[in-house]
Amino acid sequence: MRATGQAAVHRIEPDRAGTASALLNSAQQIGVAIGLALLAGIAATTTAGATDPTTAEALVTGYSSALTAAAGLLALAAAIAVITLRTDLISAQHTNGGLNPRSTDTQPAATSTT
Fold first, then answer.
1. Terminus-to-terminus CA distance in the chain, angstroms?
2. Taking Cα atoms as reference points, which of 26, 21, 19 lies closest to residue 5?
3. Which of 54, 62, 74, 82 could cross-link with 47 by S-S, CB 3.0 to 4.6 Å?
4. Residues 33-87: pLDDT tens digits?
């Protein structure tokens, strides 16, 4: 989680980094609470819909449905992250005049006019 926090406040002014970090922590906690409620609801609904919801098989089916939904959400989040990071990288290349955004060199390469 430390790397996530550093990535979230990377481009924030130093006097606002605390606020950005607090916002990140709050968003993570709210996301966990909503995610757990959603997955528990999926598991309970699937289990209750079974022919005999008191069996272990019904419980396993409910958990399986919840974990399948969680895997789908994880894949969606990964796709969003890749698209967002790629867009950010392309945007940084255009703003830096073609400089490598990970490079510490801030001067553009000299070009010959002859």
1. 52
2. 21
3. 62
4. 999 999 999 999 999 998 898 899 999 999 999 999 999 999 999 999 888 887 7
